[in-house]
Write a structure and sequence with these properties.
By secondary structure, the protein is an alpha+beta fold. The protein has helices at about 40-45, 65-70; strands at about 5, 25-30, 35, 40, 60.
Length: about 80
């Protein structure tokens, strides 16, 4: 598996001063997506709805609304 492309604008295009350590979304060669975000598992785990579950190896990662909105145009519909 490898990173194929960035989804949305780069951190620098979104106004990051350093352009290096900000939320990001990438499409992978197998069609999945990788997300760089803030690990908020401890804060949000107990708030998951009853029909949601998280495996021990999974984390709840938060990205900014702007990151996702600006990625929308690059997310495939199928």
């Amino acid at each position: 598996m490898r990173i194929v492309r960035r989804i949305g604008d780069s951190p620098r295009q979104r106004g990051s001063v350093t352009g290096e350590t900000c939320p990001d979304i990438f499409e992978l060669s197998d069609g999945d997506f990788a997300v760089i975000g803030t690990d908020r598992t401890e804060d949000l785990d107990a708030q998951l709805p009853a029909d949601a579950a998280r495996a021990d190896y999974e984390r709840i990662v938060v990205i900014s609304r702007e990151t996702l909105v600006r990625a929308k145009r690059d997310i495939p519909s199928a």
